[in-house]
Structure formats: structure tokens, C-alpha cells
Amino acid sequence: MSLATVLASAILAITLPDHTALITIRAIAFSCFFLSGLVCIVTGLRRRGTERLWRLLVAVMMLAVGTAAVAIFLDLLAGAPPVPRLTGASMVYLVPCAFGLAGLLLYPSDRHRPGEDTVAAAL
Fold it and tell me: What's the pTM?
């Protein structure tokens, strides 16, 4: 599925006119952000301990970045330049990235042993 999405995006980016291709690719991007956030939430709620925590932290990041991508997309539709102008207030968008980084740092790097308490091992 993901390879097909990448190939379709590449074909659309090459064949469509510039502005239409940009709009299409941005729409695909924020859709992927929201889909990945949803997958992290669903799989996170099915797990326990550290497995749940890292997935939910990454979900926070993906959903926040997706929300920012929608805002940029709407600005683009309203006639704003393709690259948004960043100000000091834009730094607030880095906060969800810290959640994602924390989630990646909690990603288990050793083999899971059945019956082991992963929460106690992470703390």
C-alpha cells in the first residue's frame, strides 16, 4: 500500500501542472500524517507499558504535524506562497516533535521476553 502511494504521488507530481501537483502532494502528505497517527493510536491502545507509551507519543507528534500541514494547505489554497513564512510563534510546532522524539527514545531496542514487565524496565 505505501509503495503504491509513493509511486502514485511521484507520477502525479510529474504529470500534473505545478500548482495542482503541489496541492495534490500536500493533500496526500497530511492524509498520511493523520493515517499514521490513527494507526499509532489504535496499535498503542492494544498494547501495555512502554509499547503503548511510545506509540501514543509518536501519535501526538503525527497528529500535530498533520494539523499544521492542514493549516499550511489551507493557506496555499487561499493564495499564500508554497513555503510558509516562519516567525518566532512557529517554534510552538516543535513541541509535538519533542513528544515524537521521546516516543522514539522509548522504542524498545532489545528483544522482548514474554512475561517481562516492560514498564519497570523502561523506568
Answer: 0.78
**What confidence tens digit (pLDDT) does each residue in 47-81 have?**
888 889 999 999 999 999 999 999 889 998 998 88
**Nearest-angstrom CA–CA distance, 61 and 63:** 6
The C-alpha atoms of residue 83 and residue 73 are separated, in whole angstroms, by 10
Q: What is the DSSP string of 24-85?
A: HHHHHHHHHHHHHHHHHHHHHHTS-THHHHHHHHHHHHHHHHHHHHHHHHHHHHTT--SSPP
Q: At which residue does the C-alpha cell 500534473 appear?
A: 16
Whether the CB-CB separation of 36 and 92 falls below 8 Å is answered with no
Average pLDDT over residues 29-51: 92
Distance, CA of 35 to CA of 28 (rounded, Å): 10
At 103, list the grid cell: 516516543
DSSP summary character for residue 114: T
| Grid cell of 120 as nine digits | 519497570
